Amino acid sequence: MTASGQKTTGAPHKLVQGLGLLDSTMLVAGSMIGSGIFIVSSDMARQLGSPGWLLVAWIVTGVLTLAAALSYGELAAMMPHAGGQYVYLREAYGPLWGFLYGWTLFMVIQTGTIAAVGVAFARFLGVLVPAVSESHKLFEWGRFAVMPTTLVAIAVLVLLTWVNCRGLHEGKLVQNIFTFAKIAALVALAALGVVAGANATAIHANFGDWWTASFTQPVARGAQEFTTVPLGGLGLLMVFGTAMVGSLFSADAWNNVTFTAGEVKNPKRNLPLSLLLGCAIVCVLYFLVNVSYIVTLPLKGSPTGATAMERGIEFALNDRVATATAEVIFGAPAAAIMAVLIMISTFGCINGMILSGARVYYAMAQDGLFFGSIGNLNRRAVPRNGLIVQCVWGCLLCLSGTYSELLDYVMCVTMIFYVLTIAGLFVLRRTRPDAERPYRAWGYPIVPALYVVAAALISLDLLISPKTRPNTWPGLLIVLAGAPVYWWWRRRVGGKAAR
Question: Which CATH superfamily is domain 21-492 in?
Fold first, then answer.
């Protein structure tokens, strides 16, 4: 019997430790690298208007990510159990907070990201196969619509869910292959941008006006006319925080490896190491790729420009700044080349998130906070039911077309959960001073405290900034909606939920 009271006859009673240091590191890096790095710098450039501030935003993102990863390392080594961040919040603050995180993860964060990245894969497949188009709706009913891109996204989700249901070995094999491929792609993009793409026009335009910040936005929604406002002082700080939404989203999901802690070999050593190595590799690559953008394309441009150089970083066609950079280097074949690279990147990202997300629902079910059958393992020692439920909800989000809106809602909430988790370090140091801590957070208490302050300020900025405020408050409502569900579930299981 499991903790949730479900029979597991003929199936393993525990997860198999099949992830080594390399596998865990590839899971960290592979979950982080999706489609964001190829796109978000364009919108960030419009918000900041300065190559210097654009690079600073990516540096700050890297520093915050590494600080958080180093802090999570202590929690991961201290509690190497399936569920990761869900477990840390439960142990630091009680089962309600763990449930609220798991609830939000299932409803939006994990499944919404899986759906969004799945559609991104389909969109770039459409560059190579024009029949895969969003302009042709096969069926529409209210907010639900079926398009070729929708069908491709759903097919990818189903395929990778099936692969992961076959076992941890199959899931990690796909993850390792595609993560190596996309790391190589980012290295190539960064190197080619600096070596082959660098040109006097871009370098003179960007380095000649390195720090002058400005905010560019359309005069009306969907308009092709834009207005530019100079930035400085408090205004620059506020816009800087909202601009980092793009870079933080691109560097997110590094915590997914903690969800699989129950399957990591020597977790007390390998979990902290994989968090450090994976985050460091990705953050350095992200910075170098943005350097390649800046030496290849002028940051400033025109929305009506006929070429990639004329449009610049801020007005790259469909915000595909990586494709614009490749166009300068390769010419006409650039769109196809970048489509293939982004498809590789998104495919690996989806696999990592599918693999890891189901472990959280498995841990919740073990605590009696999810359907009991989700807490069972199949004969290959993976939580198949959790994988299937996650796939079904992700596919529904693909059909709904609302996943991108939902993701906007929870960006601020995701940061708040990071703040709470790292603040949990201080709570657990006080409430469990004698607990085994094979690894202690580097720079404690200064580094974790600085992260908590910085991330809290960014979250506050997102809550009050006119650009992001409309989408952040609904995100808090999604989280709060989990509270009555938690109490209902507690009553449903007779008050026995959670440890």
Answer: Amino acid/polyamine transporter I (1.20.1740.10)
